[in-house]
Design brief:
This protein has 131 residues and is of the alpha+beta class. The strands form two sheets. A five-stranded mixed beta sheet has the order 4-1-5-6-7, with helices on one face. A two-stranded antiparallel ribbon has the order 2-3. The longest helix has 17 residues. The chain is globular. It starts with a strand and ends in a 6-residue tail after the last strand.
């Protein structure tokens, strides 16, 4: 099967002072918790996490995306990094990633996605055509 990747924006929900990031961003919190759960996930070898400096959805942070050759790409925003729900949110991300992995074209109907990823979708981009 083709390589799938979960991209996580690490600059989402950052605090800025004098043009520089300070402290830990919401995206970094999301990445840390997601990575911890990912370590025990059955698809960890087939669906790695890749940190990304910015996915240009700052007004809809935090953002993640699922990508794979020959599949639709999904970009999700408004991912909560509230500490009381962060673990649950990250479990939903991995549940949705599992669904994405099983779909040969990557298409995930709204009704099949976990509740935390039913809204906040920013883009569903078709795959490049085969040449």
């Amino acid at each position: 099967m083709t390589q799938n990747i979960i991209y996580v924006c690490t600059t989402c929900a950052s605090t800025w002072q004098n043009g520089k990031r300070v402290g830990i961003s919401g995206g970094e919190k999301l990445l840390e918790q997601l990575s911890n759960l990912h370590d025990e996930w059955e698809l960890k070898e087939k669906f790695p996490i890749q940190p990304v400096e910015c996915m240009s959805a700052c007004n809809r942070s935090c953002t993640i995306s699922f990508v794979a050759p020959g599949k639709h790409t999904y970009l999700f925003g408004d991912i909560s990094t509230e500490s009381e729900t962060l673990s649950e949110t990250c479990e939903a991300v991995l549940d949705c990633a599992s669904l994405y992995y099983r779909k040969t074209d990557g298409v995930m109907p709204w009704s099949e996605r976990p509740k935390a990823l039913k809204k906040g979708i920013l883009a569903k981009i078709p795959p490049l055509p085969s040449i």
